[in-house]
Each structure stands twice: as C-alpha cells, then as structure tokens.
Amino acid sequence: SVAHTEGLNGTPNEVKLKYLADNDFKDLKGEELKDAISKRIQEKEDDLVGDMSSQGTTPRRLTDLIGSLCDLTSGSGDKGTPVILVQGYFDNFTTDK
Prior knowledge:
Blueprint: H1 17-24, H2 30-42, H3 62-74
C-alpha cells in the first residue's frame, strides 16, 4: 500500500487524450489540436461517468494507480524495493510551467 495523505483518497476524473485527438478533434493538428484539447479539459464536467471521452481510463483509486506506477518503476517484487518518490503525477496538461 502507498503511504499517503487524505488528498489521495478518491478516483481520477480525467479525459483520454487519445480519444479526443482521434475522434473529437481528428481534423486538427499541432497548436490547434493542443488548444482544442486544453479547452476541453478546462471545461470538463466534475463527473465524467458515462462520457465517451473518459472511456478507457482506468477507474481505480488514485492510491492504486500510484502504487502500480511505483511497482513498475522499482521492479515488481524485488526484495529490498527502494522508496519511490512520485512527482508530477498530477501535473495538468493545460497548465503552463
């Protein structure tokens, strides 16, 4: 189990970028595509259950997703697995850095 604070309780509410690019914005390219996807992300509903743009995203708890990432990064099941620091997991595609 991942050690975590209360802020990691819950499930993601995200759209699938590939779905948007392949379906909703299939005629766009480059900056125009990036801008259209960014706008869709910023305007998305608070609950995407049943929305095709979220289909295929993994409906698991955030702690399970981060735990899987750590497991893949560290080498599944290795004795003496190191502490894994995950950064940028919640970076938003629409936020400039």
